[in-house]
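pipeline stage [seq->struct] | target=PRC-barrel domain-containing protein | organism=Microbacterium alkaliflavum | residues=119
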Amino acid sequence: MLLSELLGCRVHALDGADLGVVVDARFRRGARQGRREGDLELVALIVSPHSRLSFYGYERGRVNAPALINAIITRMHRASRIVPWECVETVGDGDVRLGVDAPFIPLDARRPIGEARGA
C-alpha cells in the first residue's frame, strides 16, 4: 500500500460516524540492519474533521511556526486526532473503516486522551 492511497480517504468509526479525512500518517523506523536503515512501519493516521490540507509539519512538537501560520493551521485542524493503525479494519475506495472504537488521541500532547475539544 502507498501513502498516497490513504491520504484524502474518509475515516468512519465502528458505528459509521464520519471522523474526517486522512491528512497525514505517522511511521516508526525499525532497528538498523548493518549499514541499512530499518524499515518504516505505519503506526497511526492523522485524521482531520475540518480540512483536507496537510499540516506541513507544523503539528510536530518542536516546530515554531510564525504566529499567523500557527493560527491558521490550528483553526483548520481543530479536533484533529491520531488514529492508531491497529484500529483500522479495512481500506478501500477512498474509505477507511475502523474495526474498534478508537480513543480520541489529540495531536496536542498537553491535552489528555479522550478530550475532544474544539470540534
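stage status: PASS
auto-comment: Helices lie at 3-6, 67-76. The longest helix spans residues 67-76.
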